[in-house]
Specification:
- By secondary structure, this protein is α/β, with parallel strands linked by helices.
- The chain has three domains: 96 residues, Translation factors (Elongation Factor Tu (Ef-tu), domain 3), CATH 2.40.30.10; 130 residues, Rossmann fold (3-Layer(aba) Sandwich), CATH 3.40.50; 87 residues, Ubiquitin-like (UB roll).
- 19% of the residues lie in helices and 31% in strands.
- The protein contains seven helices and 18 strands.
- The strands form four sheets. Strands 4-3-6-1-2-5 form a six-stranded antiparallel beta sheet, with helices on one face. A five-stranded parallel beta sheet has the order 9-8-7-10-11, with helices on both faces.
- The protein starts with 19 loop residues before the first strand and ends with a strand.
- Keywords: 2Fe-2S, FAD, Flavoprotein, Iron, Iron-sulfur, Metal-binding, Oxidoreductase.
- It comes from Nocardiopsis composta.
- Its cofactor is FAD.
Length: 369
């Protein structure tokens, strides 16, 4: 079965929260502060690590006696491309600094199998228009989306608006250029540089609301685009979503992924004077086994789950990655922060357990759903 014919979610059954030690096959320098890391997946884990375009993996490392987990998007064509991620150095980044400065072929890294829904089912028989807007390391999942779509939807087109500070900061520039050479009539690339003069005024300067409006107008009628993919900082993603909504683009055509937001744990839930802080019984199903634990109204469900199941899945704990996604089966919760779930997922009852606090006497969630 090819990536083009697989429906979203039709990936091999895999245990949530389980890490596998993978050997690093190569570490390739992309820019002064970014590398591409390729892992060697042994044959017995090939199905476990089979991925869809736009998905991500979670890596784990113990640093200074503390466990560090980070999400990185897979930047290879799905479903059988090499398991490769792009890692850009972040200020204070425990894993990104390690990957850029110390990681080398032959090293072993704990890796969780691919997760994520930053994609749509591909349709080889249709001619669709796709547009992506990415900034910096936001190119990593988008590169997989572009390469897979151009290969498996032979009549479709893809436009990429890629924002960076300078030409030296552009990750995967050679691969993007190769895609443009192979598909000159189907792939349009607009490199926008904020600190360098580009080929035209449109591709020079910071992508503010005025620049964004000009770029979207240059791309063409928004209503003619089948799917929009946004990946970058929250400010940019929110600006694009607002602009597209103003142009009449339905929310279900806009897909986004964030790598980082400043907020972390959800704020304490406000309770009235008469409202008690009685404990809640949480029942959660993970890998076919149901476990119960008591929690309280000020404790995220994930925190309670981790007290009794160390394999409860999570990564960022900031409501961004979606690794802790579960379906709410019974009870009610308060989830003040969500950067990962789309409207259809919310309507289907999915929550982020790292951000959800109980508001009923009992809560039941299913990580396997």
């Amino acid at each position: 079965m090819t990536a083009a014919t697989r429906e979203r979610g039709a990936v091999p059954a895999r245990r949530r929260g389980v890490f596998h030690p993978l050997t690093v096959a190569s570490v390739e320098r992309l820019t002064d502060d970014a590398v591409a890391v390729t892992f060697d997946v042994p044959p017995e884990l090939a199905e476990e690590f089979r991925f869809e375009q736009g998905q991500h993996i979670t890596v784990r490392r113990v640093s200074g006696g503390e466990e560090v987990r980070r999400n990185y998007s897979i930047c290879s064509p799905a479903p059988d491309g090499p398991l490769r991620i792009g890692v850009k150095r972040l200020e204070g980044g425990a894993f990104s600094a390690f990957a850029n400065d110390e990681l080398k072929p032959g090293d072993t890294v704990d890796v969780m199998p691919p997760l994520g829904r930053f994609n749509v089912p591909l349709r080889p028989e249709e001619a669709r228009t796709h547009v992506a807007i990415a900034a910096g390391s936001g190119i990593t999942p988008v590169l997989s989306l572009i390469a897979t779509t151009l290969r498996d939807e032979p009549e479709s087109t893809f436009t990429l608006v890629y924002a960076n500070r300078t030409a030296r900061d552009v990750m995967f520039l050679e691969e993007l250029s190769d895609l443009k050479d192979v598909h000159p009539a189907r792939f349009q690339l607009l490199n926008v540089l904020s600190r360098e003069q580009g080929e035209a005024p449109l591709t020079s300067g910071r992508v503010d609301r005025e620049k964004l409006g000009a770029l979207l107008t240059a791309i063409g009628p928004a209503a003619g685009v089948a799917h929009w993919y946004l990946c970058g900082p929250l400010e940019l993603v929110d600006a694009v979503r607002t602009d597209l909504a103003g142009r009449g683009v339905p929310a279900e055509r806009i897909h986004f992924e964030l790598f980082h937001v400043e907020e972390g744990a959800p704020p304490p839930r406000r309770r009235g004077k008469s409202e008690s802080a009685a404990s809640t019984r949480l029942a959660f199903t993970l890998d076919g086994r149901t476990t119960t634990v008591d929690t309280d109204p000020d404790e995220p469900l994930l925190t309670a789950a981790l007290r009794v199941r160390a394999d409860a899945p999570y990564a960022c704990r900031g409501g961004v990655c979606g690794t802790c996604r579960a379906r709410l089966c019974e009870g009610t919760v308060d989830m003040p922060r969500n950067y990962a779930l789309e409207p259809a997922e919310l309507a289907a009852g999915y929550i982020l357990t790292c951000q959800s606090r109980p508001t009923s006497e009992s809560v039941t969630v299913d990580y396997d759903a």
